[in-house]
Hints:
By secondary structure, chain A is of the alpha/beta class. Chain A has 2 domains: 10-129, Rossmann fold, CATH 3.40.50; 138-259, Rossmann fold (3-Layer(aba) Sandwich). Chain A is 42% helix and 11% strand.
Amino acid sequence: MSEQLKVPTMADMMAEGKQPEILFWVGSAGSYDDRAKKITKAFVKILNKANVDFAVLGTEESNTGDVAKRAGNEFLFQMQAVMNIEVLNAYEVKRIVTCDPHSFNCLKNEYPNLGGNYDVIHHTQYIEELISAGRLTLDGNTFKGKRITFHDPCYLGRANSVYDAPRDVLKKTNATLVEMKRHKGTALCCGAGGAQMFKDAEPGNKEINILRTEDALETQPEIIATGCPYCNTMMTDGVKFKEKEADIKVMDIAELIAEA
Amino acid sequence: MEYLPNIIFAILLIAGIGYFANNVKKLIRNIKLGHKVNADDNKSERWKNVVNIALGQSKLIKRPVSGFLHAIVYVGFVIINMEVLEIIIDGLFGTHRIGQEYLPASLYGFLIGSFEVLAVMVLVSVIIFWIRRNVIKIKRFLSSEMKGWPKSDGNIILYFEVVLMCLFLLMNATDTSFQASNSGNIITQFIAPWFSGFELETLHTIERIAWWIHIVGILIFLNYLYFSKHLHILLAFPNVYYGSVEPKGKFNNLEAVTAEVKLMMDPDADPYAAPPETAEDEVPAKFGASDVMDLTQVQLLNAYTCTECGRCTSACPANLTGKKLSPRKIMMDTRDRLEEVGKNIDLNKGKFVDDGKQLLGDYITNEELWACTTCNACVEECPVSINPLSIIMDMRRYLVMEQSAAPMELNNMMTNIENNGAPWPYNQMDRLNWKDEN
């Protein structure tokens, strides 16, 4: 990315005596994973373009503990949660946006009971909000008429019933949205959830991401759109496995909007 | 001797209902082996779910063929059973078709007529169900956990319904006074001619035999419920009521852990302090679940409610890709183990005596538990709000927190989170480096 991204931290903001309108929770994947970092930067580009007064925690952010919780380590989850809540509450954070549905679910649903009460939204919801408020305008040419299929992340869709925001945003790009047979409530998991991202799969006759990629390929898409860094990795691997990477791109909605 | 049939009827009725009540008592006792759950919240939402999901079957209809057939059998079952009321009154007081006497003829005819039409529709649906299970061999009925008893159980229930519906129609067809009234015999007017050559006396005998086998059959069916997967016809309603009203992604935070974490984070806490007095008699909290007693009452109710339809398993990504995990098997195992514990309690005068077995390991393996992606597809699919995922999670918690038995890669991931706040071994201070990278 040629242009310099503006990424203020909460610490900077506080030093200036300012409170941003929203905190961008980057998440571990978004901070360290090479593919996910591109999504993070695309989203920041959108925030900058829409002149959003946001901040990140930077080095004060730590893993939400979500993946530890799904692995069964409630201790580690709650330790992480309590530490993060201390930081978030100290900065008097009210509103959080994140590109990771796992962080979204965890912050939104599992932090309140430990003392962390925030208005948490997924980046696709926030992008929709920016567009409807007229803060973000798309020229709508880049993806005009392109066949895009959206893979519902489990922790956005089934877990929190957010099905429309990502689709509404995709429609704004003037792309042709094609649905897989299994979509929304019946969408198939990409195979990364529940800490599977960090371990080998149990013995079976297929990898889950391959099965899900086959679902996507049936729609003959030019782009597979995702809303989760882990789904993105799984679908990218699936497309490579099917040797389709020359024809089909796997892109996060933030990346699509940043270019649209 | 005049009252002999009435007395026999009363005895049968009391025995049938009594034995059922006794088993219901056991069922409640077994469910109460689980932890209490507070479900006082969101009462209106819960009742709404009962109306939509349980009564309205809103989730079943998502699979239109089986959903439609199920709706017929369900409506038929509920409505035709109104006839049982008349049968009971007739049986106890020696009357014959008391409804015909006390209800307006048109209403009685309408009621029995609808029962007859529904009986035929149920008969057809049940036969299609049987074909789906035994001839077309739909995949979700063929999983490994559906071999043996679960398969027979499914078929036995269908046979029961065929026999009961046939008896009901036979009973009406051979009832000469009912046929003579020519009201309500919408279907049986076409069956009655089959018996036209029979003596009046023979017809009466056939009618009586059909009547008796019908009511005895209903009582046997009632008592069969407890031993079969068919309990859902009763338990679906409380099960949906107690089902989660939270977003599916919200997993409970273990309170026992919260207490310890707060203590660890509290700078004023004295690590050497004696535990508070009241805590002495209490068994230290176990983290997660290794046996049915560690689960909640709702999870145990879930296990009894499961009718093994397999919608969960047919949507499970792990199962679809050949892994051992089957959410339906998780529910069946939980019920089997709970029944085993219940029988143990019966044999040991009301106390459970350790039998060296538990749900984890003897029924559900680690391999199954670790194959779950926590995607909630099983929870979304269940037509009666069962949550197999919550049981999987509680057992994972036991594996990790009580036994440190996570797969090695997950232990590495968790160590990284502990050390540097990310699942990978990167430095915490590098967390914002992405901003300056190209």
